[in-house]
Amino acid sequence: MSDTTPPIPAQPSPPSGSSPETHVIDYRAAEQLLAARDPRGAVKLLDSVIAAHPENTAARLLRARAFFAAAQLRPAELEFELVLEREPDNAFAHFALARTHERSGRPEQARKHFRLAAALDPRPDYLAAARFEE
């Protein structure tokens, strides 16, 4: 008996750099670049991840951190704000946005977010930055 079933056509492979696996690899590589103090390299990798997955809050938070580390304060602020629109109870995002405001010379906005961070997560560093006793 011979098999008369036609062969299954090969699935076209996704264009280079656009598969979900590639995005995971790029995200992990961006984490490593940020840890190695190459925030601009991290941003470049994350741009393609976010272009493919704009709803990915983790990638946006990592890109916000990279912008902050690269002293690109306005892009960092916008990304942190976007994360907080999606996750208003994200204590770290409030804390990081507060640090961004602090570096931008806006202490009142910083204090608001430091206090929100501390209220959401009473970690010692968040509580110290919130300066509730003042």
Key traits:
mainly alpha, elongated, 134 residues
Tell me what you see in this structure.
The chain is an all-alpha fold. 68% of the residues lie in helices and 0% in strands. The protein is built from 7 helices and no strands. α1 packs antiparallel against α2 (39-52), α5 packs antiparallel against α6 (107-120) and α6 packs antiparallel against α7. It is elongated. It starts with 19 loop residues before the first helix and ends with a helix.
Cα-atom radius of gyration: 21 Å
- Tally of helical runs: 7
Gross morphology is elongated
- Range of strand content: under 5%
For the record, give the distance between the C-alpha atoms at the N and C termini, rounded to a whole number.
88 Å
Describe the sheet with the most strands: none
Low-confidence stretches: 5-17
Mean pLDDT: 90
H/E series: HHHHHHH
Secondary structure tally: strands: 0
Describe how the helices and strands are arranged.
Blueprint: H1 20-35, H2 39-52, H3 57-69, H4 73-86, H5 91-103, H6 107-120, H7 124-130
Helix pairs in contact: 1-2, 1-3, 2-3, 3-4, 4-5, 5-6, 6-7
Short summary of the structure?
The protein has 134 residues and is mainly α. The protein has helices at residues 20-35, 39-52, 57-69, 73-86, 91-103, 107-120, 124-130. Residues 5-17 have low confidence and may be disordered.
